[in-house]
């Protein structure tokens, strides 16, 4: 493991016992301590580069104060433009930020855009209350506009500051205002998250040792037969998954010990978004809690769901909620494939400027279009047994599609990505376009796309 990875590991490991201590603090003490610890971690790992995140926070605060009505698009523009500057600082003669600063900047961008939407919603609902003389029914609405101190506290809260998960400002406020944090579940859900982490970590290190990514870039790699080259992407994606399964399960455990994102099951929380219904248990009733709000990964469904479009829902789940809520829903297109493509383009930009991100993310809409065509023109015409066989084949192709796209994500630059894809004859692209063409010829695709748009 690299020194940076060891630092990440140390931060993850330390956040778990530290979270327990925060359950004993009062709301104001919790707020100040979380801010202080987050700033200490940021300054300790980023040094002078902490100024990047601070500028982003102050710029968003100024936008909200000056024009809350247009704060969402303005904050999105501001934070995304700053991301571009942040990644190109070398052009201006400034030192390159460390990976820790990049991780903080990514999550901060999500937080501040979401905050701008929450503040706008607060003001709109407040105006409705004044005109209708009734309390707004909006779930998870802010009780007041956050101050600069509130925004700084939320932005630099130590929980998940580098590793995620993303959580809304209202989730943060609910965490601060918990009436009896010590009564909330901790041990069982935390152990449930951690029980497989040693397995994931061991598999990550073992398979990574046997199939190093660097070997793909060598001339020797091309001397192997097609099946070896094809299988290599399966091993690389497996390593990729084990790495993030370990990190995200550890990050969720840190949230759980602190009590962040803990809501009654009856609130029907969504990852990233929080409660979706008003829930008031009867006095004295036994209340069950969950941590769905901060769930960032569903390892089982990531591996075993059938469809490409469903696979995204179980991976980096809080970020997927953010993308759907703020990007997909407001996309400048109506067609599902185009809206998905627009969302993937924004996601690629958020991840970075490397061409591999764009090549990978923009392959997703192609794969989605292919599976929609096959489902409507083939699966819909099969019997029950035939559909089972279809689903197994579909699952196999879904996993190979993600293997294929992962190579762009980890190789990063266009030449290495295209060099690998060409070594396996762009097989996934070929299969996808053949499926799309077959679907068009058989008159399929339209009905399934319409259904999928309703689902979204």
UniProtKB/TrEMBL annotation:
* Pathways per UniProt: Lipid metabolism; phospholipid metabolism; Phospholipid metabolism
Statement: the UniProt record of this protein carries the keyword Acyltransferase: yes
Task: Specify the domain of life of the species encoding this protein.
Answer: Eukaryota
- Catalytic reaction(s) noted: a 1-acyl-sn-glycero-3-phospho-(1D-myo-inositol) + an acyl-CoA = a 1,2-diacyl-sn-glycero-3-phospho-(1D-myo-inositol) + CoA; a 1-acyl-sn-glycero-3-phospho-(1D-myo-inositol) + (5Z,8Z,11Z,14Z)-eicosatetraenoyl-CoA = a 1-acyl-2-(5Z,8Z,11Z,14Z-eicosatetraenoyl)-sn-glycero-3-phospho-(1D-myo-inositol) + CoA; 1-octadecanoyl-sn-glycero-3-phospho-(1D-myo-inositol) + (5Z,8Z,11Z,14Z)-eicosatetraenoyl-CoA = 1-octadecanoyl-2-(5Z,8Z,11Z,14Z-eicosatetraenoyl)-sn-glycero-3-phospho-(1D-myo-inositol) + CoA; (5Z,8Z,11Z,14Z)-eicosatetraenoyl-CoA + 1-hexadecanoyl-sn-glycero-3-phosphocholine = 1-hexadecanoyl-2-(5Z,8Z,11Z,14Z-eicosatetraenoyl)-sn-glycero-3-phosphocholine + CoA
GO molecular function per UniProt: lysophospholipid acyltransferase activity
| Pfam families in UniProt | MBOAT
InterPro entries recorded: LPLAT_7/PORCN-like, MBOAT_fam
Concerning its family, UniProt says: Belongs to the membrane-bound acyltransferase family.
Q: What is this protein called?
A: Leukocyte receptor cluster member 4
Q: What is the organism field in this record?
A: Ictalurus punctatus
What is the gene called?
LOC108264261
